[in-house]
Design brief:
By secondary structure, the protein is of the alpha+beta class. It is built from 11 helices and 22 strands. A hairpin with a 5-residue loop joins β2 and β3.
């Protein structure tokens, strides 16, 4: 066997007893940095292999990653596993938020294509951090990249640490500190110094290159996932009028699987449709006819203990469609009597939030990783004086929603900067208020990515119209339940606490209390908008029947993939972080 390792330093070459080759070496990048790399491939089958590629911040995955998948796919496949720059055994500074991903991916795939055991085709995989590296790594359009399968990741890095302009304290500080303990202080400082949506983020925003994406893909997200918004952006980027194939799967939990995912855990773990879609794409096979372009879980109510789904409630099933259902944007006006409904009150009014940064509202659930996540009960926080709640009448019929949720608020403050948060909940007949989605706007960044790189501070007392995105969901509110929107000015530690000073994030400042106001009725009528659909637009797909059909004419390895524990894809355990 002859092996060519141009621009690489061989550490070990092993011929394995099973008739496979494993090469361990450091691969040189264009700027001289070396990346720890393992190449594995069988000696049986075609002489030139298609390679499964995974670049990771968690170390070489072996059997649980690219190598394991290559073995499932058969002797026509090999694996390339690489420690991402600055992590594991790879040398070089960890360029904050995957800044080197595009260059390193291009250089690595070019090298793979040059080897005498390669057919010049590469299929990339990645979950979470690895998936981000993949979604950002194709921007130089390496010709070897033919297909991609990505779980729970984002294509636009600025929106990850700064949704609505606020810093995601628990996720960013917690994850960087756990995975890069020696570099964490500098990395966190660098991210905070670049809170503005400026040019520093351009290398980690692959949505700039959507027109040049030419590979097939499977994208897997979760309604309670930390990267849901960026995952949906990736689907729009890859599938927008392109002739190639992109399949999207949205489960309930995503990363929330690692923290229990109230109500939906058992359903999410029952089968891995994402693995089956990936196996078919990599094998050039077609899924069953009932699996369309977009497959997603339609969430419904849980049982009284939030342990399992309520089997008597509407929802809690998968649907599969060629495109997203057309929704009717339906406004719920927020009124001074704390009601929410289709009619706005005639007279203007205000409700005050006395926001003390030293006593923030505590996070309970949502799209989190290192703290409690998912459909947690909000009643304890809703009882606080600094939380405003607006609740609909009891629903007379089931109400289905699918799409983007947002609150349009008219707000003012006696400070030059502050935060406004929004939480959408399902209020059960016995009183629990379970979280569906939440969002935040930091007022100095209220104009988002269109507002430039300079903060726009408030004028005290002036009324501002803002839109608080609560991301997307698919859910059916049962008859007899109520819908609630709660507004406040903090959600800690999901987001950092705004000291109300207007100072840059990287600078320390003494926190100041704020009198924040939400304006209601009249010409400043705050409201929230739900994407209402008909239940008939969300036809049920019997997943068990589909999987049985799927597996009937597939190799035995498909069964292992279908029922693999998806929590292993995360490559870490929350208690280890």
């Amino acid at each position: 066997m002859r092996t060519t390792l141009s621009a690489a330093l061989i550490c070990a070459t092993t011929i394995l007893p099973a008739g496979a080759a494993e090469l361990k070496f450091e691969l040189a990048m264009r700027d001289g940095f070396n990346l720890s790399t393992i190449v594995w491939y069988p000696d049986t089958g075609p002489a030139k292999k298609t390679f499964i590629y995974d670049t990771s911040t968690y170390g070489h995955a072996g059997e649980s990653g690219a190598e394991g998948l290559a073995k499932q796919l058969g002797d026509g496949f090999g694996a390339v596993m690489q420690d991402m720059r600055g992590s594991g055994k790879s040398k070089g500074e960890y360029f904050t938020l995957w800044h080197a991903a595009s260059n390193d991916t291009f250089d690595t795939l070019k090298w793979i294509g040059q080897q005498n055991y390669s057919n010049n085709k590469v299929y990339q995989i990645g979950t979470s951090s690895d998936g981000i590296g993949a979604l950002l790594g194709w921007q130089e359009n390496p010709q070897q990249l033919q297909k991609m399968s990505i779980n729970w990741a984002t294509i636009h890095a600025h929106g990850m640490p700064f949704p609505g302009g606020a810093y995601r304290e628990s996720l960013n500080t917690g994850w960087l500190s756990a995975i890069f303990p020696e570099q964490a202080h500098g990395l966190i400082r660098e991210v905070k110094r670049n809170e503005a949506p400026g040019t520093w983020w351009d290398p980690v925003n692959a949505t700039r290159k959507c027109d040049s994406a030419s590979f097939s893909s499977v994208l897997v997200g979760g309604w309670y996932d930390i990267f849901l918004s960026g995952n949906l952006e990736a689907y729009q980027c890859f599938n927008n009028g392109k002739p190639h194939s992109t399949k999207l799967l949205i489960e309930a939990c995503g990363h929330c699987l690692a923290h229990g995912c109230p109500i939906y855990l058992a359903e999410d773990l029952s089968v891995s449709l994402g693995n089956l879609l990936t196996m078919d794409m990599f094998n050039d096979l077609t899924p069953p006819a009932s699996i369309k372009n977009i497959t997603f879980y339609v969430m419904g109510a849980g049982d009284r203990n939030a342990t399992f789904i309520d089997t008597a409630a509407p929802g809690n099933y998968y649907t599969s469609l060629e495109e997203w259902p057309t929704s009717v944007p339906t406004k719920f006006y927020m009124n001074s009597d704390s009601s929410a409904g289709p009619e706005r009150q005639f007279n203007g009014a205000v409700k005050d939030i006395l926001y003390d940064p030293l006593k923030p509202v505590h996070t309970r659930g949502g799209n989190n990783l290192l703290i409690m996540c998912g459909a947690e009960d909000q009643t304890l926080e809703e009882d606080r004086a600094d939380v405003l709640s607006f609740t609909s009448d009891e629903l007379q019929d089931d109400l289905a929603i699918t799409g983007h949720i947002f609150a349009t608020l008219f707000v003012s403050s006696d400070r030059i900067d502050t935060d406004f948060t929004a939480k959408l909940t399902d209020v059960y007949p016995y009183g629990k208020s379970r979280l569906l989605n939440d969002g935040i706007v930091r007022m100095r960044w209220r104009k988002g990515t269109t507002g430039g790189s300079e903060p726009d501070l408030m004028t005290p007392g002036q009324i501002y119209k803002i839109e608080v995105s609560m991301w997307n969901t698919s859910y059916i509110f049962p008859k007899g339940h109520k819908i609630r929107l709660s507004v406040s000015s903090s959600n800690y530690p999901r987001f950092d606490v705004n000291p109300n000073t207007g100072r840059p994030l990287a600078e320390e400042s003494v926190p100041l209390p704020a009198l924040n106001r939400v304006h209601l009725g009249g010409d400043s009528a705050s409201f929230f908008t739900l994407p209402v659909v008909q239940k008939s637009q969300l036809p049920k797909v019997n997943v068990r029947e589909v999987v049985d059909e799927w597996l009937a004419d597939r190799p035995p390895s498909y069964r292992d993939a279908a029922f693999a524990d998806k929590r292993k894809q995360l490559r870490f355990k929350v208690d280890e972080l």
